[in-house]
């Protein structure tokens, strides 16, 4: 961990979570995925997870233990989305705090290096994951996000951390590992 840029994801996917390659995760012996919700599983402002993401979750659950960890305080909304995907969840997680992530590791009985956190934000998802020694994956929202504030934050993050923002057209070859 020493010297690692805590804002640097291990992988940047130039697309939504449904473009995340299982092969890349398997190569790293990942057994669990902590999934952000807003602008990761669901574009902000949407009420339902789109079909591509639903199908990706259905395939992912055959390979990995899945857990939703969201900073969103709206418990009933997060619960309805989690129920629709049949996934366990924690809301109001306060990422980049590590507390909720530690709880998930304990529940899943997995060491941090075997768990990847997947999210759309450097300052919450990636920072929290790197602080705990998880594998970190940055993704794009799964649809047009209505979160003007979110897009501003993302733009700001990319302004301040331009070296970690790499747009990769096409698939995710193993060499996309940025470590
Ligand atoms: Mg998010």
TrEMBL record:
InterPro entries: HAD-like_sf (IPR036412), HAD_sf (IPR023214), PGPP1/Gep4 (IPR010021). It comes from the Bacteria. GO terms for molecular function: phosphatase activity; phosphatidylglycerophosphatase activity. GO terms for cellular component: cytoplasm. PANTHER family: 4-NITROPHENYLPHOSPHATASE-RELATED, PHOSPHATIDYLGLYCEROPHOSPHATASE GEP4, MITOCHONDRIAL. This is Gll1129 protein.
